[in-house]
Each structure stands twice: as structure tokens, then as C-alpha cells.
Specification:
With 151 residues, this protein is α/β, with parallel strands linked by helices. It has one domain: HUPs (Rossmann fold, 3-Layer(aba) Sandwich), CATH 3.40.50. It has a 5-stranded parallel sheet with strand order 3-2-1-4-5, with helices on both faces. β1, α2 and β2 form a beta-alpha-beta unit. α4 packs parallel to α6. The longest helix is centred in the middle third of the chain and has 24 residues. It is globular, with a radius of gyration of 16 Å. The two termini are 30 Å apart.
């Protein structure tokens, strides 16, 4: 049996957005996205968001620049770990954005005209979820395309 027998001539998913923050839920979502991309012969946009809202309004100095570098390095490491999971040669385009995770995910989904967002149900910080609401909840409620939330 061939992939085309399963999915037909028209591909349901051509472009899948997978936000990652390096958390265990994100890694589970990545595995699901890789499977779906493999079956559907889709490409993946891997997104890591550098959430630096806490430095807004603070004058830029060496410490802030170093902190932004650390956050950017973490994003790059998260994306590299995702790419290392790709054993099937699926096209993965890494992307780093700065700002609010939910807003950035929704903007990229729109800009890239993705067919599916695959996201972990929770990120690294439980406290942030309590205070700010879950990123996945915000994405589910506002996305214009299907969203698969992996728990």
C-alpha cells in the first residue's frame, strides 16, 4: 500500500506548523507532526518563540542583550533538537520569532498559510498558564486552520 492509497491524490495537509519550546509536551507534538507529515508528504515549519516581554520598557544594555542572546540560543537548541528527531527526511523549515507565543504562532500560521497546527497542550511553565492562560487554548480559539493539541 502506498501513501497515495491512504490520502488520495489531494493532500489534506501540505504545510504543518509545529511550535516548540523544548518541553515534553512539545516533543510529543513534534512526534505526531513528523508522523502526519510523513504520511501526507507535507512540510513542517518549526517555530520557536523567544518570549522577551519582560524586558519591554527596560533600556537596552549589555545585560539585556546577553539575556536576549541566551533566549535566542535556547530557541535554536529547541529547533535543532526537533530537526534531530527527523529520521524520514521531511522538509523542516526552522523559524524563530520574538514576542508573545500565541500571537506569534497565529501570525506565522496566517503568513505561511498552514493547513494544520500541531501543538503541545502545555509548555514549560505551569505558573504562566495559570496567570496568562494556556498558549494552546489561545491558539485553538483563534486559529483559522485545524489545530491538533497533543497531551
Amino acid at each position: 500500500m502506498y501513501k497515495s492509497d491512504i490520502i488520495g491524490e489531494e493532500k489534506m495537509y501540505k504545510k504543518i506548523l509545529v511550535p516548540t519550546d523544548g518541553s515534553e509536551f512539545a516533543k510529543k507534538a513534534q512526534k505526531h507532526a513528523l508522523f502526519i507529515a510523513n504520511v501526507c508528504d507535507a512540510e513542517i515549519i518549526a517555530l520557536s518563540v523567544s518570549e522577551n516581554h519582560f524586558v519591554n520598557g527596560i533600556s537596552v544594555n549589555e545585560e539585556i542583550e546577553q539575556l536576549n542572546e541566551i533566549l535566542n540560543d535556547r530557541c535554536e537548541a529547541d529547533l535543532k533538537n526537533f530537526e534531530d528527531m527527523n529520521e524520514d527526511g521531511i522538509k523542516i523549515t526552522p523559524l524563530i520569532k520574538e514576542g508573545s507565543p500565541a500571537k506569534s504562532i497565529l501570525e506565522v500560521a496566517s503568513e505561511e498559510d498552514v493547513d494544520l497546527i500541531v501543538i503541545g497542550s502545555s509548555g514549560k511553565s505551569g505558573f504562566d498558564r495559570f496567570i496568562l492562560g494556556s498558549v494552546s487554548d489561545k491558539v485553538v480559539n483563534a486559529a483559522k486552520c485545524p489545530v491538533l493539541v497533543v497531551h
